[in-house]
Specification:
This protein has 100 residues and is mostly helical. The chain has five helices and no strands. Helix 2 runs antiparallel to helix 3.
Length: 100
């Protein structure tokens, strides 16, 4: 919800705050997935955790204009991150739900 809701904050909140919110949300999800991977050993957790953490870093790099992806750079980063994280569920039917 935070990722979607932050898109509507453009006129009310400074861009730096939006970048911080997006990066913190992705970092939170990544950290939770990494910790959950250690606990439950689900395959998608092992993949989605690092994807979210890299997405958090990418939001910082694009948002602070260290890397330029154009006007829609943050939207691209969020879209790619969420798409990759959702695609990790496709590995479970192929390789098994849990890692031994």
């Amino acid at each position: 919800m935070i990722l979607i809701g932050s898109n509507f904050l453009q006129d009310m909140v400074p861009l730096v705050a939006i970048i911080a919110i997006l990066s913190a949300a992705l970092f939170w999800m990544g950290a939770a997935c990494v910790l959950n991977a250690r606990r439950c050993r689900r395959r998608h957790c092992f993949y989605s955790g690092p994807i979210f953490l890299l997405g958090a870093l990418a939001v910082l790099l694009v948002g602070l204009e260290i890397i330029s992806l154009g006007e829609d750079g943050l939207v691209i980063v969020i879209g790619v991150t969420l798409s990759l994280a959702l695609s990790t569920y496709l590995t479970e039917p192929v390789f098994g739900k849990y890692i031994d």
